């Protein structure tokens, strides 16, 4: 009995009392046999528990593209642009077909990702100076929750926590390590005057910054190297890294090795940035450049996947990939040329599907079924509770997101669905709102000067391109969705001085 684990004492005492009460030898032998079986079972359970305690949490890398459309990837129907690494990622993981960004432009979309809140409740609802996230403990981000769950945390690339360099600094929002662009507008430049490693400013005097479009130091090279070094440095610790690429956002430029494979394949209309468009630079071949930028992004992801394999982390790392909003039209890019929005209407700054429906791919070795596809309706605000679920900690209360782990594990009956999805955005003098419930989608457009309001209603199952406005025909659906839409922007949010 000296080798029996102390936790087994109570069980042993119970069996011994049974033995004392048994008088016949044959029964006594059977009882001793049962005791042995009980002890073996207890020992097995202890070993199993010990093994579980030694299991390492999976690393998680969330890759976020900038202005990449739903239709820009081969695995989502793109025929002209080469994306072999992302196509392979989809073949080894799960591809979502009804996943939405947080908004139709950068800052609010990333706010939804960081906080688990949709645009009816989020603090940032548009781009612009002063709309940065507030410091802890207000508006806690996904970085803080993952750090508290025992993860090393990093954000590399374009900061997802604010528009300026004041409050909302990445290191103040739960991320141990940061390298890249702190400022929102600064991230337009692929040859920046400076970037940051945590609070340290790193200057590149050889570059022209956002005033010109060329230089010597190409920021995506530095961002990729930082990510690869981080993976190697943290290979012995569970880590959560957001790889926030600036590709394929304008400025329109990519190294020659990526552009040259497309030169001569497409008709081209040269672009020369002037006036307010000067910071987008000059592009002789915008279509070849667009394709090259997306292929370059895909190449970077291939490098990350290779590094994980070389460090022995491939089987214990979850990869997630998406984009912050629909394709842009700046710098000479023509989204319609490559059908970048897929079968959908709209681009960046629209609340039609093309502005907010995004590619979303998840590879989770041993968990997610390879080559699977999900039509579950999800959004950026689901990522936070999904990751806390994976990390084994409770999701924060009061958020709008739900965990996608049941879908990832193929347990569809356990997947909680949203009652509705909500977005809003102001573009110039037009306020835009959109709400989706099931297959139905309602859009509201408000002239902020005249206060005139118009509505559009679509059944996405029958009209995926949002071409036929049936608001006057389907009055019952219109009234039901209108009530939800008007209430999605809560008075509580207004009282907290949000937006």
Which descriptors would you attach to this protein?
disordered C terminus, 30% helix, Alkaline Phosphatase, subunit A, four-stranded antiparallel beta sheet, Arylsulfatase, C-terminal domain, globular, alpha/beta, disordered N terminus, single chain
Model description:
The protein is α/β, with parallel strands linked by helices and 499 residues long. The chain folds into three domains: 6-54; 59-414, Alkaline Phosphatase, subunit A, CATH 3.40.720.10; 428-495, Arylsulfatase, C-terminal domain, CATH 3.30.1120.10. The chain has helices at residues 9-21, 25-54, 84-92, 106-115, 142-148, 219-233, 256-259, 286-310, 353-356, 383-391, 405-408, 475-488, 491-495, and strands spanning 59-65, 94-100, 152-158, 177-181, 194-197, 200-203, 239-244, 271-272, 282-283, 317-323, 357-363, 372-374, 378-379, 421-427, 430-437, 440-447, 453-459. Strands 1, 2, 3, 4, 5, 6, 7, 10, 11, 12 and 13 form an eleven-stranded mixed β-sheet that branches. It has a four-stranded antiparallel β-sheet with strand order 14-15-16-17, covered by helices on one side. The protein is globular. The termini are far apart. The model is unreliable at 1-44, 46-55 and 492-499 (pLDDT under 50).
